[in-house]
Specification:
heterodimer, A: mainly alpha, two-stranded antiparallel ribbon, B: mainly alpha
Chain lengths: 346, 446
């Protein structure tokens, strides 16, 4: 039962990174690929109907984490107090950037919100990567399962590390490059002309970044948390996840070169799914390792709610998620195809 | 530790009250937009469809602010109230997760279709997307009320390991008797807000002698919906909610009413200032025996005062609780009076030219926001000193690892950021109102 809910939460977080990932990525590239007002309106038009629903995956994942693993939710949210609050502020600012831009017809107003949208998206991508880095590296848990981390201490990986050290910053860069490439693929898929060409070029550029940062991250993860390979050694079928990720990365280069934008986008999806599932597979059953005394680490078993709640949750959760997927398919179908903005308007 | 507790409470109170200014607009307007579109679809009245489009614009601005200020609410259960989340997450995590899975997905997916898809979908499907957005927001409201109702009146739980509680019956949790009346009371309150926004804008257009055909629709829709909702807010929902409190939280009732001594035939206080040192109410103006009648349907019934309970279970801020409650009730009465007068004028076909009345209507739009905020303040202060009524005291629920300095940092950040959001919101709504329904509606269709 705990394993099932671990998979459910992992699935929802993965959906979040896939879906909000493309609109965050579009935000990262917004200033560099879209130069004219119409191009910027096109980028925003490409994510406009979706970004809010994409963000709901984060909220729903948070809610699911809350009821399935209450102690994990409480411990990690209070321990990551400052970065989470900053993430909230960034989510707010970035959402405002998207929604405010078209409200006033003035170039300064638009410039300001374009900048807010792009800066907020970039920082969020880094923070999401760094958050994953903290989970992989472990945090200074106490015997009661709580901890508190400052934003940074000395930037070295040590038991009393802060949120940001060289390892988590590296994963932050993995987040930034991955989502930038993913967003580039998405924009290329949804647009035409010069904007599409620039999005394609940027996607290729950032794919190289993905290659370098994720290789560095894979090696340093093996150094910092050697036991991440234990599950792979015991269950060899688990290698399907990193293979999927590697195949995705190859596809990103291959299809980008052939200008097959849909396939390139699917490749970056595969890369994200592969990398996240590899991490989850490697960590399991640990969900928040301890950087001090290993026995204090939080696992799916010592943080899960009781079985009645988990059991009845499966029923409504499955129904709810199937219905939600239905909405998403309907929504994406309704707005399928290239985005065209009308010449007038702002 | 005391400092940190106060800061955690202030931050949650501030972010929650601020956030709820916006969902009450969207939940109220959502219903009115559905009604306008439905009548337009049935009668072919294009002006009503344009009105719906104009209010859809206001809805979208409010929705965006509601979403961005709503995300911190769920996060704060973990960041600021970690021990409460560990304690109760197995129970209320269910309803919060359900809100995400059943309401937010519905709402956010169809909002995109509602805002961007009128041309693509055609009138019927577009109406359907409006209904879905409305349903999503009202379902979301139910899950939040169920969560709050569990904190007010725990149901469907059993003791769990390590001193926590665990879910024992999902049915009892979802059908908590407290939740039903609280929900209806809250939702009628949201419709009052939506109605007054619409009526107030209509009054402005009539007074300014511009967009008058829209002004008439807005005044008519707002006043009639306002009368129905403010009446329902008082009776039966407000009355039933009062009885919920009287029977399940009698000490809260005594504090709300400013009743320091237990008496037979207790009076209903209209105005007065509680003096906590002398344990009495200064300058009271009251209706004799009314409180006994309203609570127990008997004029002579005994109502327990604060003296009947040990001070360790008294709400921690009785004067503020007392004032919030009285402000809510006073404004609620005012809403019935204004909308009843408006309905009478409409019936006599004099409403659109009655300028003194239109002035009152136009200036009354802030009051439903104040009344809804005061109502929630009453509910939440009335729950004190408990975080979960009778089970967990508020100081035991905070995040022990988060220091006062860190809590103050984020509180100040939220204050600053939300101030900016408030300025932007007012600017955009004023801009839309200034541009007018005809202009906005035309622009939105493009």
């Amino acid at each position: 039962m705990e394993i099932l809910w671990f998979c459910a939460v992992a699935f929802m977080l993965c959906m979040y990174v896939l879906l909000d990932g493309f609109d965050l990525g579009a935000g990262i590239l917004h200033l560099s690929i879209a130069r004219t007002n119409d191009e910027r309106r096109t980028v925003l038009g490409a994510i406009g109907p979706f970004w809010d629903g994409n963000e709901v995956w984060l909220i729903a994942a948070g809610g699911t984490l809350y009821f399935a693993f209450p102690l994990l939710y409480a411990s990690s949210f209070s321990g990551f107090y400052l970065p989470l609050t900053i993430v909230l502020w960034l989510l707010i600012l970035r959402g405002l950037g998207i929604e405010m831009r078209h409200q006033v017809d003035h170039p300064m107003w638009r410039s300001f919100w374009d900048g807010t949208f792009s800066a907020g998206s970039s920082l969020l991508a880094i923070f999401l990567g760094a958050a994953l880095g903290n989970v992989v590296r472990g945090v200074p848990l106490g015997p009661d399962g709580y901890f508190f981390e400052p934003l940074w201490t000395s930037f070295t990986v040590q038991p009393a590390a802060g949120i940001l050290d060289w390892f988590t910053v590296l994963l932050g860069l993995v987040g930034l490059t991955t989502l930038a490439a993913h967003g580039g693929n998405y924009v290329a898929m949804k647009t035409t002309g010069e904007l599409q060409a620039r999005a394609r070029a940027r996607a290729r550029f950032w794919s190289w970044g993905v290659l370098f940062t994720s290789c560095a991250a894979a090696f340093s993860t093996s150094e910092i948390r050697p036991d991440i390979w234990r599950n792979f050694a015991e269950h060899e079928w688990g290698f399907i996840f990193p293979i999927l990720g590697a195949a995705g990365l190859c596809g990103m280069f291959y299809f980008n070169r052939r200008s097959a934008d849909v396939k390139a986008f699917l490749s970056s999806c595969a890369f994200i799914v592969g990398m996240l599932s590899s991490t989850a597979f490697g960590l399991f059953p640990s969900v928040l390792p301890s950087s001090t005394i290993p026995a204090y680490g939080l696992t799916v078993y010592n943080t899960a709610a009781r079985s009645y709640g988990l059991g009845i949750g499966i029923a409504w959760w499955t129904v709810g998620i199937v219905v939600a997927l239905g909405y998403f398919i309907y929504l994406f179908r309704s707005f399928r195809g290239k985005v065209h903005v009308t010449p007038e308007g702002y | 530790m005391e400092d940190a507790l106060l800061l955690h409470r202030l931050q949650f109170a501030f972010t929650a009250s601020y956030h709820y200014l916006f969902p009450q607009i969207t939940m109220g307007l959502g219903l009115l937009i559905v009604i306008m579109k439905w009548i337009s679809l049935r009668t072919g009245n294009e002006l009503l469809n344009s009105s719906a489009r104009f209010w859809g614009k206001i809805f979208a601005i409010s929705f965006a602010v509601g979403v961005v200020t709503g995300i911190p609410m769920e996060f704060q259960f973990g960041t600021n109230w970690a021990r409460f989340s560990t304690y109760a997450g197995g129970v209320i995590g269910q309803t919060l997760a359900m809100e995400g899975v059943f309401a937010f997905f519905l709402e956010s997916s169809f909002l995109g279709l509602f805002l961007f898809g009128e041309k693509k979908l055609g009138p019927k499907l577009h109406f359907l997307s409006a209904v879905m957005v409305f349903l999503g927001s009202w379902i979301s409201g139910y899950f939040i009320i169920v969560t709050n109702a569990w904190m007010q009146h725990p149901a469907g739980y059993a003791p769990g390991p390590n001193g926590t509680v665990t879910l024992s019956s999902l049915g009892d949790l979802l059908l908590n008797p407290w939740a039903l009346w609280q929900y209806l009371h809250n939702m009628t309150g949201a419709v009052v807000t939506g109605s007054f926004c619409v009526a107030s804008a209509g009054a402005y257009y009539l007074l300014a002698r511009r967009d008058e055909e829209y002004g008439k629709i807005f005044v008519r829709t707002g006043v009639i919906a306002g009368l129905v909702s403010s009446f329902l807010m008082a009776f039966p929902t407000g009355d039933a909610q009062g009885k919920n409190i009287a029977f399940n939280q009698p000490v809260t009732l005594a504090a709300m009413e400013g009743l320091f001594q237990t008496v037979d035939g207790a009076p209903l206080v209209l105005i007065g200032q509680p003096d906590m040192e002398k344990k009495k109410l200064d300058n009271p103006l009251h209706v004799p025996r009314m409180l006994s009648f309203l609570t127990y349907n008997r004029w002579g019934a005994e109502v327990k005062g604060l003296d009947a309970f040990p001070s360790s279970v008294w709400p921690t801020n009785i004067p503020l609780l007392y004032y919030s409650y009285h402000i809510m009730v006073g404004l609620g009465t005012l809403f019935i009076a204004i909308t009843a007068a408006g309905t009478w004028l409409l019936w006599r076909r004099r409403a659109y030219g009655a300028r003194p009345f239109l002035w009152v209507l136009m200036l009354s739009f802030p009051f439903p926001f104040i009344a809804n905020t005061a109502g929630w303040t009453t509910a939440e202060l009335g729950r004190q000193p408990w975080l979960v009524y009778g089970l967990l005291r508020t100081p035991a629920g905070t995040s022990a690892t988060v220091s006062a300095g860190n809590a103050l940092f984020t509180l100040l950040g939220f204050l600053g950021l939300y101030f900016v959001i408030g300025v932007l919101f007012l600017f955009l709504v004023m801009k839309a109102l200034g541009a007018g329904p005809a202009h906005v509606s035309h622009h939105e269709r493009e």
